Amino acid sequence: MSAHAPQPPQKPGEDPIRPHVFDGIAEYDKRLPNWWLMTLYASIAFAVVYWMATQHFGGKSDGEKVTAHIQGIRAAKLAAAGSYDDAALWEMSRNASIVAAGAATYASTCVACHGANLEGGIGLNLADAQWKHGGAPTTIMRAVAEGIAGTGMPPWGPMLGPKKTAEVTAFVLSKHPAP
User: Fold this and answer.
1) Looking at the whole model, is its pTM more than 0.70?
2) Distance between CA 63 and CA 12 in Å, rounded?
3) What's the rounded mean pLDDT across residues 151-179?
4) pLDDT band at 45, cuts 50/70/90?
5) Which domains occur in the chain, in start order?
6) Alpha-carbon separation of residue 99 from 91, 104, 125, 171, 172 (angstroms)
7) Of 41, 92, 124, 165, which has the fewest Cβ atoms less than 10 A away?
């Protein structure tokens, strides 16, 4: 294990041998090929540009993409369930994709009477903690689906169907703290 063992003489045109020898093995002092170096430098440049593009200049992070995908799966499962109890409606009110769908339906059907921010107007205020006809999620959904006689609240259930009715209920509940 000598650090400096005698080296054989170098012939002209041969690559130089490095001055150290380990276990009797000498190492050539050879430069890497240009194609290999260009591939290395291009890979480093691509990695830096890709990292900057995905992490600093917009776009969702991987965690946000996974969360959105999981919420989409949960939304599909909740919508396909068909039976809506209080717990399911509260869960739907915490799912961003269901709330967004409910907001779109609310904007097209409910905003004229209840206002853009659920503040009321012709209809009742839906943003406060007071519920004239009951504040349980299933009660709210029933009011949307069947209407309220003598108040001007029409039955939206036949026009919207159960899924959209549940989404509107989830949108209204999303503006309230869960129990």
Assistant:
1) no
2) 60
3) 85
4) very high
5) 17-55 (no CATH), 62-174 (1.10.760.10)
6) 10, 9, 19, 5, 8
7) 41
